[in-house]
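A reminder from the course coordinator: this example appears on the midterm review sheet, so study it carefully.

Given structure:
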């Protein structure tokens, strides 16, 4: 009797777990501390300081978020910023199973990145540069994840956190630096193609003369809006693409020339409509309607490019 009791104690599992069906299952050889990941990960001692710091961050960046929201709502060049945060959150949510398998290992090294982000924010407030304030928010989020969750979790969430950069408008000097060349290039290339097709068109700088009408290719028509938006979408497509790192990089980089070509095609549509006497009175209506159409066309080109790289990568992979 005593030997049997000792034998039962010897081979008794260290703990039991309850399955979804209500049955108690034995898990011998696994320490009790390895279970209850969600309970340990979201215990009060862990969630309270995180919630406190998040609340402090919202209070600290309230002005920056207000400025960004105003920019998204009033400036069409950066209206895509409204969907950047939801897309980043959706990508992070799609990685929830992988994140559940990773250990939570807080690291003090994350405080260094957090300090860098706060210094960037302080400098942005001093210099009144919204771009640095938005960029510092991304750095602070990365520092918080590294500090409280560890480097492995940060590595898993690297893309959705980095993707938040697209919600911040670039600095004004950068827009002015590339805006004027894009205006002149869009005008000259569209006039060149229109002239080769036999249309009455002439370009002078950022001015277009077509069939007695005069147009100015201003900054919104330079292609900056399409480049900003298509670059953000291409980053997501490159991340989701099942191809090599080089293929992903090419998918992302293709956004700029594809968006520029779509903008040139949009200006060409204006030239064609202006040369049709029965439609020239409604040329601006065609101009406004062609914007979304050309963007969807450019997005379709990037999607085809992604599909092409995925097919080529599958052909190159030889099963073992």
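Designed residues:
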């Amino acid at each position: 009797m005593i030997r049997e009791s000792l034998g039962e104690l010897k081979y008794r599992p260290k703990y039991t777990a309850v399955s979804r069906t209500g049955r108690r299952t034995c898990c011998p050889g696994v320490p009790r501390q390895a279970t209850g990941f969600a309970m340990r990960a979201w215990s009060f001692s862990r969630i309270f300081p995180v919630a406190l710091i998040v609340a402090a961050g919202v209070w600290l960046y309230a002005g920056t978020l207000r400025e960004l929201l105003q920019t998204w709502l009033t400036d069409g060049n950066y209206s895509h910023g409204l969907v950047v945060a939801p897309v980043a959150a959706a990508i992070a949510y799609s990685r929830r199973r992988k994140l559940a398998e990773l250990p939570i290992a807080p690291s003090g090294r994350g405080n260094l990145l957090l300090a860098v982000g706060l210094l960037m924010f302080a400098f942005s407030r001093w210099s009144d540069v919204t771009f640095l304030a938005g960029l510092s928010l991304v750095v602070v989020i990365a520092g918080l994840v590294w500090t409280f969750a560890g480097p492995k979790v940060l590595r898993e969430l690297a893309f959705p956190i980095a993707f938040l950069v697209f919600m911040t408008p670039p600095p004004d000097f950068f827009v002015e630096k590339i805006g004027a060349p894009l205006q002149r290039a869009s005008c000259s290339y569209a006039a060149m193609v229109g002239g080769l097709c036999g249309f009455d068109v002439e370009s002078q700088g950022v001015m277009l003369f077509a069939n007695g009408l005069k147009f100015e290719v201003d900054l919104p028509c330079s292609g900056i809006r399409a480049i900003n938006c298509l670059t953000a979408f291409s980053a997501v497509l490159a991340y989701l693409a099942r191809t090599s790192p080089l293929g992903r990089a090419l998918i992302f980089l293709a956004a700029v020339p594809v968006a520029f070509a779509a903008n040139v095609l949009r200006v060409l549509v204006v030239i064609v409509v202006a040369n049709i006497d029965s439609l020239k009175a409604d040329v601006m209506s065609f101009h406004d309607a062609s914007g979304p159409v050309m963007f969807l066309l450019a997005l379709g080109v990037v999607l085809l490019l992604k599909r092409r790289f995925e097919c080529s990568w599958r052909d190159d992979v030889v099963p073992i």
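The radius of gyration is 28 Å. The longest strand covers residues 201-204.
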